[in-house]
Amino acid sequence: MDKAQLEKLKKQELVVVRSLLKRQNEMLGQSLLLLDHLIYLQKSINLLSSREIFRALSEKLPYILSIKYFSLFLFDKSKRHLKLVCHNHPDLKTDFTIHYSESDIMRDALAGGRYILEQDFSRSRYYRGKKNPLFQCDFFVTLPLMVENEIVGAINLNDSEKGSFDVTDLDFALSAAEFLSLSVSNALLHEQTERLSVTDGLTGLTNHKQMQIFLKNELARSRRYNAPLSIAMLDVDHFKKVNDTYGHQKGDEILMELAHIMTRICRSNDVAARYGGEEFLLILPETPLPGAIHIVDRVREEMASTPFKSQGTEFHVTVSAGVGQYDPKIMTGGAEDLIKVCDHALYQAKEGGRNQTVKGNPDEALHA
Fold first, then answer.
1. Element (H, E) at 72
2. Whose CA, among 126, 128, 258, 350, lies 20 to 30 Å from 205?
3. Mode of pairing for the β-strands spanning 69-76 and 81-87
């Protein structure tokens, strides 16, 4: 090989080396950018509030993943439902729940524990001849959100400026999905623990301990502002007989139904609590006695008209109630005296034939 050929070969090799170095620098720069985006994502969603996580995702996830649209569903294992909790689709309603079987895409992703990537929605096997609001156009990706083989939910991604989704994009999205799964799972677990500490496990109402705190605060507010405050004690009639006849599971169903009725009828500032066993308590701020009786009678009447079934037999259950209004001049013992007045009235409702509301008499109850 002569000198001229050798010089030409060296120049060609130099061009190739420079090209490789340039490509490596580009790849390194891209990797550093993606790493920076992952750190940004992790910081943005390292929260113990699912609502705050979803808000952060709505604002930042499209930028982080370089996509136009996304939707995030949580999976309810017991009901096999997928609930939409976060998205940025302009025409998609926020309160959206579907059964697991209604979405072929998410069902396949969750059942297989793997991602699904289609570069053209209209040509994919999931296309049903009409536009899907979750997948606007171009490519779509569905990623299962999982923590140690437990399904948390699914996230759908689609559309970008470049109109495609390559291997680098997919690898990065999978890494982001791991961060997302852990953050959401931790937040939901924290919220469940917080919720269980203040609510009754069966009915979902405020538990006895938290009820005492609410009542103490409302009594203080009533004294400070001279505002009316009433409470009511409700008790399921013949509950032991119901349990003995239809079983404890049916008894639990009755308690849950009563809790549901109370929650539906109560106003936003009222507190419905499980006092213990088949007894419930309503705290009704800014409510004089006649208003409290009206609310309690609505609960009592709706409960009495609700049919229950067991082994083909239909039956009804009634509730008795005692209602009292706080009077700081007479009820010097505070919450204890107010509850005693209502409990005495409840006893009179039971003795008087049940399925009725009795107004509390402080003179009788506190000096009996």
1. strand 69-76
2. 350
3. antiparallel
Task: Report d(CA 222, CA 73) in Å as an integer.
Answer: 44
Which residues neighbour 341 within 8 Å (Cβ) at sequence distance 6 or greater?
Answer: 322, 324, 331, 360, 361, 362, 365, 366
Q: What are phi and psi of 64, to 5 degrees?
A: -65, -40
> Has this prediction a pTM greater than 0.90?
no
Determine which helix (DSSP H) or strand (DSSP E) holds 233, and give its type and residue range.
strand 229-236
Question: What is the 3-state secondary structure of 342-362?
Answer: HHHHHHHHHHCCCCCEEECCH
Query: Does residue 230 contact residue 324 with C-beta atoms inside 8 Å?
Result: yes
Q: Summarize pLDDT for 273-324 with one digit per residue, the tens.
A: 999 999 999 999 999 999 999 999 999 999 999 999 998 899 999 999 999 9
Residues 265/295, Cβ–Cβ less than 8 Å: yes
Helix, coil or strand: residue 45? helix
Helix, strand or coil, per DSSP, at residue 144 = strand
**Domain end: 167, 192, 217, which one?**
192
What are the distances in angstroms from CA 49 to CA 154, 157, 189? 19, 23, 10
Question: Is there a contact between 139 and 117 (Cβ–Cβ < 8 Å)?
Answer: yes
Whether residue 95 is found in the same domain as residue 239: no
Q: Is residue 142 part of a domain?
A: yes
With tokens 């929260």, the residue in question is 47
